Amino acid sequence: RQWWDRVRPAPKDPITSVSRAFLADASPNKINLGVGAYRDEEGKPVVLRCVKNAEAKVAGSEFLESISASANSRLVEESVKLVYGKDANVIGEGRLAGVQTLSGTGACRLFAEFQRRFYPRSKIYFPDPTWSNHHSIWKDAEVPQSTFSHYDPKSKGLNFPALVDDIKNAPDGSFFLLHPCAHNPTGVDPTEEEWREISYHLKVKNHFPFFDMAYQGFSSGDLDRDAQAIRTFLQDGHLIGCAQSFAKNMGLYGHRVGCLSLLCTDTEQAVAVKSQLQQIARAMYGSPPIRGVLLVSTILGDPDTKALWVEELRAMVNRICKIREALRESLEKLGSPLNWEHITNQVGMFCFSGITPQQTEQLQRKFHIYMTADGRISMAGVTMSNMDYLANAIHEVTK
Ligand code: PMP
């Protein structure tokens, strides 16, 4: 029998195929603006000093199996403080069911599975657009999905009235996936007032808010401010789900450290929910590797190392903000007839530039500049040294 004869290649992933094309390009001028990974002023990946400190502290301890359970619970304990606030009542009341996950993707996948088990017929609504993997994750979990309005191509900002209408029009008791800060791919976040209204309308409709927080700190440079949307929902009495990733804000990408937490009505419910999440995880992959967990729980658990992390996170965000200003200025100086204000209005790792698929193709072919076809620019890939070349290329293809 020819076992795998009928297997055809899977469709290409929009982000990894950009990286592959970039690697194959021999031009010395090439720029990768595809993958959302932080780069320093020289365009190099960064290992944060807080991570190096934590590595020194945990050296040699990763083989001690007895530490694994305590490191996991420490990770969850510290992670939920970042989301709900360090003094949040719900933490003391034992209302959170939290488990360590395989980064943000694993947290989403685990929740999708949980959702299907307990609400098999409820849909999940994603913002339009969203991180493309959201669609794949919930599809694989066989949860029906739909979208709600988010981005307005005309203003390159939020289409708030349409967003609210879509919340109102979804069947009562639907699941809504929300990016609490630094929306990927658009860089467009609701204001605090808009979040209050979103929270209100979700409550009226009995929808469940699921926050995918992959970039805490990257919107404002401040961890608490970036969690404000979730805190608003908390005040409004919602039950909440939250996926957290330490890939970007600690630069731990390949270590795959994350947390999934569900806010429950009381401790009894939290214990039940947690045991179900653990059972699903156990059958899928057991548990995530311990090394990254030790690093994150060490950073969050030690006040000095945590302070260093906060400082380094702010420095990453500051560099991206400066780069946003410089890119906008460069395009304006070149006399671009287009409005580029959205480069500085949008926040986080990405700029949803408005560059069309045809223009991104030209950027790649003529200038060796790589980005996803939707025109999303990973701002961390821009440096003061490639700025002029990039601005000029964008101007050439958009004028
Ligand atoms: N959610 C969103 C919105 C993301 O952009 C990402 C990273 N691209 C993730 C989740 C998951 O990332 P990771 O699994 O690397 O933590």
Automatic annotation (TrEMBL):
- TM spans, by residue? none
Mind listing the UniProt keywords for this protein, alphabetically? Aminotransferase, Pyridoxal phosphate, Transferase
- What GO CC terms are in its UniProt record? mitochondrion
Coiled coil (residue ranges): none
> Which EC numbers does the record give?
2.6.1.1
Extract the SUPFAM superfamilies matched here.
PLP-dependent transferases (SSF53383)
Q: Which reaction does it catalyse?
A: L-aspartate + 2-oxoglutarate = oxaloacetate + L-glutamate
Q: Where on the tree of life does the source sit, at the highest rank? A: Eukaryota
Q: Which Pfam families match?
A: Aminotran_1_2
Name the cofactor(s) required for activity, per the record.
pyridoxal 5'-phosphate
- What range does the record give for the signal peptide? none
Question: Which GO molecular function entries does the Swiss-Prot or TrEMBL record give?
Answer: L-aspartate:2-oxoglutarate aminotransferase activity; pyridoxal phosphate binding
**Any single GO BP term:** amino acid metabolic process
- What does the UniProt record say this protein does? Amino acid aminotransferase important for the metabolism of amino acids and Krebs-cycle related organic acids. No activity with D-Asp or D-Ala as amino donors. In plants, it is involved in nitrogen metabolism and in aspects of carbon and energy metabolism.
User: How does this chain assemble?
Assistant: Homodimer.
> Per the similarity annotation, which family is this?
Belongs to the class-I pyridoxal-phosphate-dependent aminotransferase family.
Which protein are we looking at?
A: Aspartate aminotransferase
